[in-house]
Fold these 4 entries.
Entry 1:
Amino acid sequence: MPKRNTVLHFIIKFVIKSNKFGIVGDFFKKYENKSNVIGTLLLEHRLKLGLSKEEVCRRVQLHGVYIHRVELYRMEKEISIIKDFELIALCEVLGINYNNEVRKLID
C-alpha cells in the first residue's frame, strides 16, 4: 500500500508542477494534434504586414493583453492554446476578420 501512495503522490506533484508552467494544459488539449487552429493564419498575417513578433506583442499590449514573443511563436506554431481575449487582440492588431477568415477554419 505505501508504494501506491508514493506513485500517486508523485503523479499529483508532477501535475501541479507541470500545470504551473502550462505543460499539462497544452499537452492534453489538442485538436488534430494542434493546440490551436489559427496559428498559421496569425503567422501569415504578421508576415504579410511585415511585423516582427516583438512589434505584434507591443501592439497587443496596447489592447491591455500581455503576450511575450516566445508565447506568440508558440501560438503561431500551434503549440500553445490561445485564450479568447488574446485572439480578439491579435485579430485587431493583425487585421484578421473573424467572420471571414477564422470561421472558415472552424467550419
Entry 2:
Amino acid sequence: MDKPEKDEIDTMRMIVEELRQKGKIYKKLDEVQPKQLGIRNKIKIYHATDIHGYFTALFMISQKSRVLMKDVRKMEEIYGKLMVFSDHNFKYKMIKIEAPLCSKAQKAFKETGWKIL
C-alpha cells in the first residue's frame, strides 16, 4: 500500500476536523480514487464509517465554474457507481462544494438526500 503524501494527510485531517465540529465522528475514512469507479471527474471521494457503524459517502468538489443541475445528475451517477464498488448502501451522503452553487442545484441536492457542508 502506498504511503499517503503530506498534502493528502493534511486534507484528510481538515475533513475530519470540520466534520468533528459538526458532531460527526468517524472511526474510518478511506479515499476512493475516481479511476477505481471508472470516472474522469476531478473530485475527491471518501468512504467513511462512523462510530455507530453507519456508512457515509463524502464527495468534495473544488472548481471555478458554477455547480449546475447537470452536476447533480453526475454526482448521483457517481454515487451509484460508489454503491456498486463498495457493495453496500450508504446511510448518509455528504458533499462539500468549494464553488458557486446554483440555487436549483442546491435544492436538487437536498431533494435527493445530499447534505451540503
Entry 3:
Amino acid sequence: MRIFLDSSGARPRPLSVVFFRSATGNEPVREWLKSLPADERKQIGADILAAQYGWPLGLPLVDFLGDGLWEVRSRLATRIARTLFFVNNETIILLHGFTKKTRATPARELDLAHKRKRDYENAQKSPPRK
C-alpha cells in the first residue's frame, strides 16, 4: 500500500467509502466484488484504498467521466475492472463495478452508474420513512 502525504508531510485524513445501497437494500458493488476471485478483489480493493487516501487523483488510476462520475481503473491479470463512483461530502460512494476487455466504457455501464447516483442523491433529499 502506498501512503500519501500532504504538502506538510503529514498523512491526510482519507475519504470515507460507502457502498451504494438500492431501495431494496442491495449493495451492487459489494455483491460484484464478492463474485470475483480473491486476487482480483484484493487488487481492486487496493486501488480503491489508494483513491481513498490519495484523493484527488488522476490517471492512470482514477479518471473523470463527467457529470460528477469518476472511475477507479484496475488492471487485473487477464482483464480490466472499473469501479464507478462519485464523491459526496468527503465520502466516496461506490456505484457500480464491472470487468471488461476493451478500452471504451460501455454506455449501459455509465447509464447505470448515473441512475444510481441520481437515486442516491434523491434519497439524501427525502426524509427517512417511518
Entry 4:
Amino acid sequence: MMPGMSTERIKRRGPITLLCEQRRLRWTVLGGLIALVVASSVYIMLTEFRNLKGRSAQVVSGMTRAEVEACLGPPALFLESGRNDRGGVLVWVDQLWQVEVTLDASGVVSGCRCVYSHSALRRALGQVGPLP
C-alpha cells in the first residue's frame, strides 16, 4: 500500500443517487412537475376547446357571414374562391374539430361541415382510443 492512501473506498455518487437521497429536493421536483402538468392541462381545456361541433349545428344555409360569425366568433382562416366572385370558405379550428362554412358569391352560407381537426392532441389521443 502506498503512503498517504487510506483503505476506505471512495463512494461515487451520481445525480440520480443524490436525488434519491435528498428527500426535500425529490419532493420539490415532483411537486413542480405535477404543478406544470396541471397548469398546462387547465390552460388547454379552457382555451382550446370551444365546443365548435355543438355551435356549428346552429349554422344553416341562407345565413349571412355576419350571422355565422356571431355564432362561432371570428374565423381562423378565410379562403377566397379563385373566381371573381366573393365566395369562399370560412374555417374555425379547435383541438378536436374543424368547421368549414362555404359561402356563395353573395356572401350567404351554401354549406357547412364539421370534420376532425388534425391537431397534435387528436393525433396523440387517437392512438390511445376512440375520441368523440
